Amino acid sequence: MKTNMTVSQKILAYIKGNPIVVMMALISLVVGCTIPNFFSIENANVLAGNTTVRFLIALGVSGCLITKGTDLSAGRQAALAATITGVLVQRADYAGRLFAWTPETNMWVVLLVVLCIGAVIGMINGLVIAYLKVPPFIATLGMQTIVYGINLIYTNAQPIGGFHQNFKDFFNLKLAIGGKGFSAYILFAVLFGLLFWFLYNKTTHGKYMYAIGGNENAAEVSGVNVRKKLTTIYMIAGMMYAFAGFLMTGKSGGASASMGTSYELEAIAGCTIGGVSTTGGIGTVSGILVGVLVFELLKIILQFLGVDPNFNYIVQGLVVITAVAMDIRKYVAKK
Amino acid sequence: MSEYRLEMRGVCKSFPGVKALDHAQLCLRPGTVHALMGENGAGKSTLMKCMFGIYSMDEGEIIYEGQKVSIKDPLEALHMGIAMVHQELQPIPARTVGENIFLGRYPMKKFLGFIPVVDHQKMYEDTDALLKKVRMNFDSHQKVGELSVSQMQSVEIAKAVSANCKVLILDEPTSSLTSNEVEALFRIIEDLKADGVAIVYISHKMDEILRISDEVTVMRDGQYIGTWDAKNLTTDFIISKMVGRELTNLFPERHNVPGEVVFEVENFTSINPKSFRNVSFQLRKGEILGVGGLVGAQRTELMEGLFGIRSHTTGTIKYQGKELVINRPKDAIDQGIAMLTEDRRATGIMGVLSIADNISVASLNKYLDYGVVINDRKVENLVQDNVKKMNIKAPNSKTQIKSLSGGNQQKVLIGRWLANSPDVLILDEPTRGIDVGAKYEIYCIIEELARAGKSIIMISSEMAELIGMSDRVMVMCDGRVTGFIDGKDATQENIMELATQFV
Predict the structure, then answer these.
(1) What is the pLDDT at residue A177?
(2) Residue among B166, B169, B142 nearest B155 (CA)
(3) Does B214 reach chain A within 8 Å, measured CB to CB?
């Protein structure tokens, strides 16, 4: 039936299916036409940078959502990776070093270290959920506060700065010559987008993930090792948060335990806006990207309109609830 | 007032991409049992959901006691006196029988003269009276989750009766009942009839229909085919109306020849002392072994034990003399065993996923390029092969499986298992909830598999199927095997005798 639709019908169907995306496009068009500098490379770069971090977290959490779980520890895990990155890339001659004994480490080695830590935390989440059968909401809520506690204790709740030049240089790297253009690290968003597309569509890992989300019992009967798969999914998620945390430190030139607060909610919101179903088994990488982009765009628009930043929270909350309500409506509306 | 209690005329209802009802009609007289018949997907349930206010009609009218009415939601239907016992029971397991029955309309009293509170005493007294009325004797304080499926069904019926309904819809009420319980249900139906209730009875079981119904309405493809007086009807006539053609054979001709013993189970015992114990049997190459017994005989549990879904304490499983170690389904699959589970929705289909994803999930490793990349073309070939071989009706391989009819879903699931080319195939109620036409096709597939040398274990609660398809019948009762009967000698009587040995 769908194949016989004319172009105008297709456009109409898209608008009906993605009301928030269409709404955001219209609003940004209006804002862009009325406020100068909205359509500028600098602004686009800010948007791309913010989106990159959230996209990586959202990719991580998407596996949990597709298997009917969730991960509320995402933001705190990213923050832990951020501070560890900060500590390890501090200059040896920097007076405010948190630990005198930490070496000035090559940034790629640092990345490897935080990825490993992320994998371990994620794996613990996965084991608790898959083997101890603790509901994901509770398990990761617990992990959220544990990780936050660890982060506060070892950093003494102090901000971390004074990074070595190589690290700073990498994050100042621009794709266009002359200092104007997009930051190079947004390529990670592209890289991981492609990687996850491949993972979700072309590997047994992805197929089994969707199968578990579609019907966990049926997946087990069909020979999927559900517990192992769930553990892997949470482990990959942990690594994604760690990667995002690494980028957060580089991007902002500093790190603290309070970074990344409520990023998990933003990531879950982005996924949901992008069509990852809260009832499991459904979700695409392109959808997640669109969802995160819309959410970040919304924040920037509010900023350009001069809205008090504290109001942002309210608006964002409303958008999330609306998105889920719309998603659920797709199923109830069939009555 | 008209002669009818309720009339539905010219009812149309479309879902995206499919016209589920196309000018359907149904006219119910008071004090009669009206059987609504049709293959799966004929629109019976949709029509009932329109009557009960779960769906809204696109077109058509409902005339209730001579008045044209519109029913917006189930609550309104209940207030009007229309009650429905659903095919899939929807009890709240953690609450008591009484609370389930009076959910949403608890009897109230005033505490301290002005605070409204639930009158538990009255509620349980009323529940006891109701349970007595439906001839069920169990405790109204018992948690519904502790009841058997058939008892839950009785609770649902008691709930419907308690609403003082004038129209009662029973959607496949006997699919999980034993013959004694069916008799009890029929007595309740007779009582209700005598009270002037108009009853809609949906079932696939012909003998039941012919026994208790007064009128029969047949639907096909969402359309009204006709209504007949039940007295003069025959099974063949109804079936021909349902499928729109004459069906000569219920079962295919059998050409499979059982060979040497290949699969042996010895002294197999569950970790649960109330479940299967000391089960031993042998299975031959190319043999169809039917497994009969009453509900609760632990047949499903035994097969799930063999397949690694449930745990066992002692016992050995051998294939061609080699002992198999099976602790989870994956072990069984890797060693050439497949199992089509009983409850398609709970442990079979992944509803929101595509046909391609559903059919390939158990054999994905076969379609990899370079050991990691899934080759979509190979998966598509698998789908097309099965679509052709088993006559699966579906728009394309990306269609969500939940939008297919039960028979087509079952064929996809059979395809899922055949993709692994198993040696031993366990089929647990392979034709449950499947319409007559598709049933025959599934029998043909089973026969063909046996002919190709696969060994098949088939659990069935349908006597005709058990007798018509099995080379041998193994009968179980209360977790134990009570005997084997050769397929040629099997009769309803000798199977039932073994099935009730310890009851």
Answers:
(1) 61
(2) B142
(3) no
Cβ B378 vs Cβ B367: under 8 Å: yes
**Distance between CA atoms of residues B47 and B21, nearest Å:** 7
Residue B227 identity: T
Inter-chain touch B374–A207, beta carbons under 8 Å: yes
Residue in the block written with tokens 């394309």: B396
Identify the weakest region by mean pLDDT among A61-75, B98-112, B334-348, B477-491: B98-112
A329 part of contact set with chain B, CB < 8 Å: no
Q: Which chain B residue lies closest to A221 (C-alpha atoms)?
A: B329
* Residue of chain A with shortest Cα separation from B54: A335
Helices (H), B69-199: 74-80, 97-101, 120-133, 149-162, 179-194
Q: Alpha-carbon distance B439 to B455, whole Å? A: 20
Query: What digits encode the pLDDT tens for the residues B29-76?
Result: 999 999 998 876 688 888 998 998 888 889 999 999 988 998 888 888
| Interface mutation vs chain A, best among B15, B353, B354, B379, most A CBs within 10 Å | B353
Residue pLDDT, tens place only, A169-214: 999 888 876 667 888 999 999 999 999 999 999 999 999 999 999 9
Chain A nearest-CA distance from B154, in A, is 28
Q: Give Cβ neighbours of residue B349 (< 8 Å, ≥ 6 apart).
A: A215, A218, B358, B401, B402, B409, B412, B413
User: Considering CB atoms only, which of B346, B357, B372 is closest to A217?
Assistant: B346
Give whole-number Cα distances, A154 to A150, A159, A243, B390, in Å: 6, 12, 20, 64
How many angstroms separate the CA atoms of A154 and A207, rounded? 40
How many CA atoms lie less than 13 Å away from B144 in the CB half-sphere? 23
Nearest-by-Cβ selection for A1 from B17, B55, B364? B17
Chain-chain contact of B55 with A281 (C-beta, under 8 angstroms): no
Nearest CA in chain A to B356: A207
**Residue type at position A212:** I
Please state, in angstroms and rounded to a whole number, the distance separating the CA atoms of residues B98 and B130.
Answer: 10
Query: Which chain A residues are Cβ-neighbours of B54 within 8 angstroms?
Result: 335
Cα dist from A306 to A197, A301, A311, A313, A316, whole Å:
37, 9, 10, 14, 16
Amino acid, res. B94 = A
- Order of strands across the sheet that contains B33-37: B82-85, B167-171, B198-202, B33-37, B215-220, B223-229
* Chain A residues whose beta carbon lies within 8 Å of the beta carbon of residue B55: 335
Instruction: Say whether residue B365 is in contact with chain A using an 8 A CB cutoff.
Output: yes
Show the CA angle centred on residue B198, arms to residues B196 and B200, nearest 5°: 155
Parts of chain A with a pLDDT under 70: 1-4, 177-179, 327-335
Q: How far is CA B431 from the centre of its chain?
A: 8
Is A327 touching B (CB cutoff 8 A)? no
Query: Does the beta carbon of A208 lie under 8 angstroms from any beta carbon of chain B?
Result: yes
| Pair of tokens at residue A36 | 């100068």
Q: Can you read off the two tokens belonging to residue B139? A: 């405790």
Element (H or E) spanning B343, and its range? none
- pTM value is 0.79
Chain B closest-CA separation from residue A101 CA (Å): 43
Judge whether B63 is closer than 8 Å to chain A, CB to CB.
no
Calpha distance B85→B170 (Å, rounded): 5
Say how far apart CA B167 and CA B161 lie, in whole Å.
10
Q: For strand B67-69 and strand B373-374, is the pairing parallel, antiparallel, or unpaired? A: unpaired
Rounded to the nearest angstrom, the gap between the alpha carbon of residue B41 and the centroid of all alpha carbons in its chain is 14
Which residues in chain B are closer than 8 Å to A201, comparing Cβ atoms? Answer: 374
Name the residue facing A202 among B339, B362, B373 (closest C-beta).
B373
Task: Judge whether A226 is closer than 8 Å to chain B, CB to CB.
Answer: no
